Amino acid sequence: MALTGLDIYKLLPKTNCKKCGFPTCLAFAMAIAAKKTALDKCPDISDEAKATLSAASEPPIRTITIGAGEKKLEIGGETVLFRHEKTFFHPCGLGITISDTTSPADLQDKIKKFNALSFERVGQKVKAEIIAVKNDSNDKSKFINTVKEVKSKTTALLVLLSNDTSALEEAVKIAGDAKPVIGPANISNADQITAIAKSNNANILATGKDLDEISTVTGKISASGYKEILIDLSNVKDITSLENLTQTRRMALKKNIRSIGFPALVFTSGANTYDHLSYAAMAIAKYAGIVILPEPDPSIFLPLVTLRQNIYTDPQKPVTVDSKLYAIGGQPGANSPVIVTTNFSLTFFSVEPEILNAKVPTWLLIVDTDGLSVLTAWAAEKFHAEKVLDAMKKANLESVVSHKKIIIPGYVAVMAPKLNEISGWEILIGPREASAIPKYLRSSWQ
Amino acid sequence: MEKVIEKAVSKISELAIGATSANGGTREKELKIGGQSAMPFLHFEGSMPNAPVVALEVWDTVPEEWPLIADEFKDIVNDPIKWAQKGKEWGADLISLRLESCHPDNKNNSAAYAADLVKKVLAATKLPLIVIGCGHPEKDQEILPAVAEAAKGEKILLGMATKDNYKTIVAAALASGHSIIAESPLDINLAKQLNILVSDMSMPLERIAMHHTTGGLGYGFEYCYSIMERCRLAGLAGDKIMATPIINMIADETWKTKEAKTPQDEQPNWGDLHKRAINWEIACAAGYLQSGADILVLAHPESIKQVKQTIGKLK
Questions:
Q1: What is the CATH number of the domain that holds B52?
Q2: What value of ipTM does the predicted structure carry?
């Protein structure tokens, strides 16, 4: 990975000329290693040294862009093995395969179902982004027609797969400037595919029977100066994929091995949809850049986009929900209860399902506590009577309900007298734990 | 290419659940969990002598908040004995019995009831047993000692011991030779603290499992996932206190979610409800398998079958 000061020193002229502003070449090298100065401050550096140093400063796993404009997808560029060490930056792409042997009716059906794989979770739009078109027919015109159909009827990012390079060359032009992935590139066709990718601004999917062979293929491609590469780590045995996904991430991060420092693509395999789901879940958790399943089944994709969102959430910042008044469980009205809590997403997502369980339509007033949970926010003075009153006013609660009663979490019962005094509302002490909300709403709320 | 190997300096502790007749119990087998010397399924750098196991979640009252399970298995879920007997047929490795009805907000059933039920369940199934209280810290201090006494000799796994009630529950488990689940709310420091407190009562670390308070998929999954990874990494790096096996209560965090309840006609693009709910349980389990789950507690027979199969492929 990053070169040490001594590694850099070896590449410098060692003249101690001071033109860089440092007393010695060694001091300058140390400063570069510490990222306090840049190499170009040395007027006498050789081109060779420059190339070595700039290569060393590249990220260990290359960031690859698929597509263009607003719907482009960036994958790779990861810097850690475990999300708690920093975060995983670029959520993996999810998608489906479409074979060019699919009948016209099935093709339309699949396209329609793919286009519906779009969901809203925690206020974010999440969806499947990718369609991989496979030239299983070995018939060029069938492949081209399928690619055209997919391109014209979806906004999917494309992975174009054919063993016929002339078919790929034609297909890549249909994708236009939407930077697709093309392949599979192997030892024998890597040069041809690289030429097509270069002249059409496409990414290349490198394949091989094992990591050594994949590394040879990526080596051939990048020897030409082109590095828009993904590696295919699919394997019919899940365990081999897990090993390879783990090893490639480690080799890139810990040993700075460039030839496998690219995002990985995985086609799931298995005997039934549950197998595909389980395989995909493993690949999302463990380092895949793209995961492709056979069918656009929403009952599979909803849990998968959710898992992806969970895994790629930045653990360094608390996740919050919008601070506002929510209507939970149908249509609460003027006589419905009002519960107040914090904007920490985990608090919200503990409380919301319990209100749904209660089957009592309820107003849920969320107070901005900078993403802190009830007790933590109270201790940090971010969840107190004045803050709750502010939120009540902002939500115009007086005009929403007619009863002037508000339920506060049992853990902050202590704020009740003050809140009562400044708001004039009756303060009801709710349960301490969200799990007791159904019982509370059913029995205690009148 | 040369593999990058990260050798662990230590192992996860090995916990045994269930006593066979050879050991003074009546279980058909002794189930072992833990003992790994690598992160999950990374066989190239360590061993995994005991694969993760799957438990069937059984309630002693109809789980009204799991409408799909309550409906699909309506002839089973109204009888904990019948329900527990399904464990074997559905391929579970053990049973996890939850004494929900003892909760003061539920039927407030007594300690004597709990003890009697546990005896009946032990007679009805020969699978090893986990018994979980009702989740009310004070009430669990009443019922769990009675359960421990009733199951004496069977080496059950008893939970949940929390910072508020661990003393009584751990003492009861010690007196009757059981193991304990130490539960802490999504916080690695509290998890460690509780493991220290429990082991300070001379409960061997080999008889403690951790529950970090499982987050359901989409409902805090990522917090639990990362705490599990951190615990497991610490355990493998030599922190014996953090090297205890981990349990995930997945069923309870799955079947009450809106994804496992909302019919397709209300959410047309969410897909078939029945399939979606099972998928939710499977995906959650598949995720936790990667962060160090040793016991996965599930409810649906399809999920149990699938998760067992996934473990079979990875182990």
A1: 3.20.20.20
A2: 0.97
